[in-house]
Design brief:
This protein is mainly β and 684 residues long. It has 5 helices and 40 strands.
């Protein structure tokens, strides 16, 4: 069954299209010149990155994580590294080896409540969330392909800002300056699971290419506690691979063309034999960046994604639902212009467009007889066209920044069709098209009080459209059924924050206090026994404090992060019983601290202590997930000029990490896991 889920989900034409688009980049005329011209071309510097966003972000709370920080992760996974930013959170505590992919929505500042992402995630300027579900395909985003990670808090109003109600995660791919010419890594753990990755990053004339691949596989660990295992219980098996190609070439001394492609597949099994899930995709993008007097950034992308999932009854252990396919397409692009202004100003003007379309196809079965009971199809199309402007000005020690964004959004072609086993239509719903305009504003100020000390504050609003998944797809986490809701309205954010940043020799400290409210927040609301529906609650109101600190002394490095969050549902009426309750999956307190020792070039010993407070599985606070504290460790030992021994240990104390508690039915995250492997590099 596990292998049989590898269906014809992919559209090979996209792969061919990408390579056709990328070919001009890797066959740039700059690389076909004679020796003299090639020497001139070497003076051209390409970065493979977009325009510098920093002048327009200085007044806001931003956490930057580089490759050195990523190397301290014991799991070696992006979602683990992101928890180093105070207040960052996935919907569940499990990572991309054992969670259902649709549970991998990300948010910040306690604004969660369901599995859709309230944080915009970009890779080289392109939104990466699934067009249908809104989750992040973390298994397709390995750390060794990334050069920089920026976590930007608060509502966003820049490119693709609609959807960034809880902030933005900006991922930037590594370039040859960050990578050796070639590198390979092989890791294995004490359960016999393996990670294999390889990257080659050659300079090609004045440009470069990066080809990378990764394959993770394993029998997985037991997510089901010993006392709840039955004959149908199995380990959380996983098998995922991805490959990416980037090409960057200069078209002129201050203009570069960037092309990127990604192909990935991810297979997982959760809890019961036959409960297999699949996600896969093919992404391609082209980007033209100009760094002259009139700077510009022109981007276009296409995503082809698919998802399937089998639900097994927890009482009869038979298949009750086969979500056979969920093909979806994401299209989009942006044009951004930065006119020449004096050194005291920055100005950014742009337009962006996104379209998400897709359809769910599933078959329901009797949990007793195994006979087909219904066939369902549901889907639609969401569009967003945004116009934005951002400007800032330096006035002595004071920097002022402001931005505005206008979005024309639409929800179209919504439908839900159900037929009987005999093919007779039993339900056919066609939902009315909707559209509207929304205005988002953001303003901030940064005051340099003294050398290394700055105060900052900002105020903002924003919006998020419901995903196609929230609008049209019901789902089951047995025995609870959650209904879709085609009448869902946009979420609307209003928030403000203030804080300070202190930087001294070898020491950094920042603190931010915030108050964010999302009106019309979409939550999975209990409406009956084992029955929920996605609904707009009146508001989710979250207030809190985020703390970050770093210190460096000789060969030692330390960092710490903590968040204190008071989040509650407001004004949803006594009939629902939600007023004053904490949103699902939101802890009040979370913290982590890492100590690293680098005694010599290439050596590393580090340990991370992490604590996550108690949280609730559901909206009514009936199922509690207890607090948990974990300890991780990593070590790197050089074995020569080009090879290193890598050791990693996850959850060294074997803490019991409860990721799901549904009426006493429990899932667990990774137990103690010890990894060992080799990293070999060559060139540069």
């Amino acid at each position: 069954m596990f292998e049989s889920r590898k269906r014809h989900h992919f559209r090979a034409i996209l792969s061919r299209s990408f390579f056709a688009l990328a070919l001009p980049a890797v066959s740039s005329p700059a690389w076909a010149q004679d020796k003299d011209d090639a020497q001139v071309a070497q003076d051209i510097v390409v970065t493979g990155r977009g325009l510098d966003p920093s002048p327009l972000l200085q007044a806001y709370s931003v956490v930057t994580l580089d490759a050195e920080r990523s190397a301290l992760s014991a799991s070696g996974r992006l979602e683990d590294v992101l928890t180093g930013a105070a207040g960052f959170q996935q919907f569940r505590r499990s990572d991309s080896r054992s969670a259902n992919p649709t549970a991998q929505g990300v948010t910040q500042r306690g604004l969660g409540g369901n599995a859709s992402s309230r944080t915009l995630v970009l890779l080289d300027g392109v939104p990466v969330t699934d067009p249908f579900f809104g989750h992040v395909p973390f298994s397709a985003l390995p750390l060794d392909r990334l050069g920089r990670i920026s976590v930007i808090r608060g509502g966003g109003t820049g490119a693709f800002g609609a959807g960034a109600v809880a902030g933005t995660v900006d991922l930037v791919s590594a370039n040859p300056a960050d990578l050796p010419l070639g590198e390979a890594r092989l890791m294995a753990n004490d359960r016999g699971e393996s990670e294999l990755s390889a990257t080659i990053a050659p300079q090609l004339g004045a440009g470069y290419g990066v080809i990378s691949g990764r394959w993770d596989r394993g029998q997985g660990f037991w997510t089901t506690p010993v006392e709840q295992r039955v004959s149908a219980s199995v380990r959380a098996r996983f098998d995922s691979w991805s490959t990416s190609l980037r090409g960057v070439a200069p078209l002129a001394p201050d203009v570069e063309l960037q092309a990127r492609g990604l192909v990935f597949q991810d297979h997982r099994t959760l809890r019961f034999a036959g409960a297999d899930s699949f996600q896969g995709g093919q992404d391609a993008s082209l980007r033209l960046v100009g760094r002259g007097a009139w700077q510009f950034d022109v981007l276009g992308y296409v995503q082809a994604r698919d998802y399937s999932n089998v639900v097994i009854s927890s009482t009869t252990y038979r298949k009750t639902l086969d979500q056979q396919a969920t093909p979806s397409t994401g299209l989009g692009g942006k044009i951004e212009l930065r006119p020449p202004v004096d050194a005291a100003h920055s100005l950014r003007l742009g337009v962006d467009w996104r379209r998400a379309s897709g359809e769910m196809r599933e078959v329901a079965f009797s949990g007793v007889t195994g006979a087909v009971t219904a066939r369902r199809r549901a889907g639609g199309t969401n569009d967003d066209l945004g116009f934005y402007a951002e400007h800032d000005r330096q006035l002595g020690p004071l920097r002022l920044t402001g931005s505005a964004r206008v979005d024309r959004w639409s929800v179209r072609d919504g439908r839900f069709i159900e037929t009987s086993a005999a093919g007779v239509v039993t339900t056919e719903a066609r939902f009315a098209d909707r559209s509207g305009w929304d205005l988002s504003l953001r303003g901030g100020a940064l005051m340099d009080l003294a050398e290394g000390l700055a105060l900052r504050g900002s105020i903002y609003n924003g919006l998020r459209q419901p995903t196609l998944n929230e609008l049209y797809r019901p789902f089951v986490v047995f025995p609870v059924t959650t209904r879709a809701n085609a009448a869902l309205e946009n979420e609307e954010l209003f928030g403000f924050e203030g804080g300070f940043d202190l930087k001294l020799d070898g020491l950094e400290f920042s603190a931010t206090a915030f108050d964010n409210k999302v009106k019309g927040a979409i939550a999975n609301v209990t409406i009956g026994t084992n029955l929920r529906q996605r609904r707009n609650v009146d508001a989710v109101h979250s207030r809190g404090v985020e703390l970050l600190a770093k210190a460096k002394l000789a060969q030692f490095e330390w960092d710490g992060a903590a968040s204190f969050i008071d989040a509650q549902v407001e004004g949803s009426g006594p009939s629902l019983g939600l007023d004053g309750k904490r949103p699902a999956q939101v802890p009040k307190f979370a913290a982590s601290t890492t100590l690293a020792w680098r005694p010599a070039e290439g050596w590393l010993v580090a340990a991370t202590l992490r604590h996550v407070g108690a949280q609730f599985e559901d909206d009514l606070e009936t199922d509690r997930l207890p607090a948990v504290t974990t300890l991780d460790a990593v070590a790197t030992v050089p074995l020569g000029e080009r090879a290193s021994l890598v050791l990693r240990a996850e959850n060294l104390t074997e803490a019991r990490i409860v990721t799901r508690n549904q009426g006493g039915s429990i899932d667990l995250a990774a137990p103690r896991t010890v990894w060992a492997g080799l990293r070999i590099s060559f060139g540069r």
